[in-house]
Write a structure and sequence with these properties.
Radius of gyration: 20 Å
Strand content: 15-25%
Order of helices and strands: EEHEEEEEHHEEEEHEHHEHEEHEEHE
Structural class: alpha+beta
Strand order of the largest sheet: 6-7-12-10-11
Number of helices: 9
Distance between the termini: 34 Å
Shape: globular
């Protein structure tokens, strides 16, 4: 187990932002992860768990405590059953499932981060969410001090949320297990209109797995959502805000604001989100509130490729990023009466 003191954390995040940790421990086995967590708990030391760092905003002052980098490795594929160690690179895991001819996560290609983070956020994109294929999550429970196996039904998965996210101080994910589908080399039924259009098929159709993955990677790259060290549009956390889910009453008020502000012929994006609720688009809200692609003049700006991504242009601080985020939140609230919620986890700072 590697240990460093006064260690920079910015290089461990896709934003490349944040100050140092008092102590940084890199664990390469489940036993080392548990040992580091127990030591922090026994000594009352604040603990920050870091996977791929793709959903993390760390304050400029850094973290006063132990940062635990989970670098565990391990992939087991048995028929349609897949088990990933928490430290496995998610994009590599998706590529492996496609090569094996297994469907279920192919539209989650190109999402940066580690496998262990996927159940926490219930990672999803282009019509797929990991909650539809996860069977179990193996985690260390800091309350009972035991390793537990939590079945899908007990993970409380919902849109970009889970049991692990609602109680972040309790569980440290060690392994994630999935059940995929052998559809003879074909993808799962396509559920996202943009993906279907790009593939020239109808929603609900299946296409060859490799073709589905390649199309998603192309779509994500066009939005700056695939990591590229040379492209500052990818120095981000991907989507910075979640898509708002509104009650019927809230959507009616929002709809009226849209008509008043943009004209009677304008219809906002609206997607069913369970009985009595409608989901709308955060990217649409940001754009229509006047924050277009490339907005900003400082070192933190909106991506030139996608309004939902806030980016570090190379010399930003976390405070620069948060200033921009607060401006966007205030602008959308003033324009449409909706308060956007940040998707990345914040450490030592808040919007």
């Amino acid at each position: 187990m590697q240990e460093r003191h006064d260690a920079p954390l910015a290089p461990l995040t896709t934003f490349r932002l944040g100050g140092p940790a008092t102590r940084l421990v890199t664990a390469t086995t489940d036993a080392e992860v548990i040992e580091a967590v127990r030591e922090a708990d026994d000594t009352g030391t604040p603990l920050l768990v870091i996977g791929g760092g793709s959903n993390l905003v760390i304050g400029d002052k850094g973290f006063a405590g132990t940062a635990l980098e989970i670098a565990t490795k391990g992939v087991t594929l048995d028929g349609a059953h897949l088990e990933l160690a928490a430290g496995e690179v998610w994009t590599d895991a998706v590529a492996r499932t496609v090569e094996a001819g297994l469907a279920g996560v192919e539209c989650l290609a190109g999402i940066p981060g580690s496998a262990g983070a996927t159940p926490i956020q219930n990672v999803g994109a282009y019509g797929q969410e990991v909650s539809s294929t996860i069977t179990e999550v193996v985690a260390y429970d800091r309350t009972t001090r035991e390793t537990v196996t939590i079945p899908n039904a007990d993970c409380a998965f919902s849109y970009r949320h889970s049991r692990f996210k609602s109680d972040p101080e309790r569980y440290v994910v060690l392994r994630v297990r999935f059940r995929l589908e052998d559809a003879e080399g074909l993808s799962a039924p396509l559920r996202y209109a943009e993906t279907a259009r790009a593939l020239g098929v109808e929603p609900g159709d299946r296409v060859p797995l490799a073709r589905a993955r390649e199309t998603v990677l192309k779509l994500r790259s066009g939005k700056g959502m695939v990591l590229d060290p040379e492209d500052h549009d990818t120095w981000s956390a991907g989507s910075f805000f979640t898509n708002p889910i509104l009650s019927d009453e809230q959507f009616t008020a929002f709809h009226a604001r849209v008509k008043q502000r943009l004209g009677s012929d304008v219809e906002p994006p609206a997607y069913p989100a369970g009985e009595g609720h409608t989901k709308t688009s955060a990217a649409w809200l940001i754009d229509k509130a006047g924050f277009t692609k490339g907005y900003g003049t400082g070192p933190a700006r909106i991506s030139t490729k996608h309004t939902l991504a806030l980016t570090n242009r190379g010399e930003a601080t976390t405070e620069d990023l948060l200033t921009l985020a607060r401006e966007v939140v205030a602008g959308v609230r003033n324009a449409f009466g909706i308060t956007l919620v940040n998707e990345p986890v914040t450490v030592g700072v808040a919007l």
